[in-house]
Specification:
Blueprint (H helix, E strand, L loop, with lengths): L1 H13 L8 H34 L15 H30 L8 E8 L2 E7 L5 E6 L7 E5 L3 E8 L4 E5 L4 E5 L5 E6 L4 E6 L12 E7 L1 H13 L3 E2 L1
Parallel strand pairs: 1-5, 3-11, 4-10
Antiparallel strand pairs: 1-2, 2-3, 5-8, 6-7, 9-10
Length: 238
Amino acid sequence: MLRSSVLAAPVVLGGCASHGVTTQGRDIERLYNLFLAIAVVVWAVVTGLMLWSIVRYRRRGDELPPQIHGHNKLELTWTIIPTILVLVLFWATVQTQDRVTGPAGDADPVRVQVLAFQWQWQFTYLRPDGQPDVQVIGTTEKVPELVLPAGRTVRIRLASADVTHSFFVPRALFKRMAIPGRTSEFDMTFDRPGLYPGNCTQFCGLDHARMIFNVRVISAEQYRQWLTRQRAAGGTGT
């Protein structure tokens, strides 16, 4: 019973992965599940053949079992099958990455410029003409919040002011590096309201552990009200 539990633990733990809360995250989740399913099948086949070989060819005396030197069909089989699996997983990965990293096709997305710096975040909401509208800057005393509307495409332009950082929202199953001198652009579409923690996962200096933020997803009406309040307060919040 104990051995069975140990063997089954990786499969059970694999099913405990976070569910994606964005349209793009669900694509990543489906890819994870495909990898997990194929891995389980491979594990079951290999383990089954290994156990069968142990029982079938266990020692019954001093006489050796029949010795086989070379088997072209078997060697071809265990070469072709892994090759096909690798090609299938490669194709699925490329297709998923294209959907996740490509534009969502929304003609009017919410545009936010995310600037990472030692050791905080700056979120600048842009107007349709590209001009700054509302700005949120994190401090050591207060974790900054990236407030977004549920159900709308959010186009994020990510940059770094100093060293390499990373923008990571675990529940979105997405991470993107912020590299000095380069601007990265990607879309995220959160399905439902909620509070989703985020952080920098690239060690960036002394206060790297403080470089955290929250993504607060609210309804479209609440988002409009929030923008109105921020504009009335001068366009800058902490």
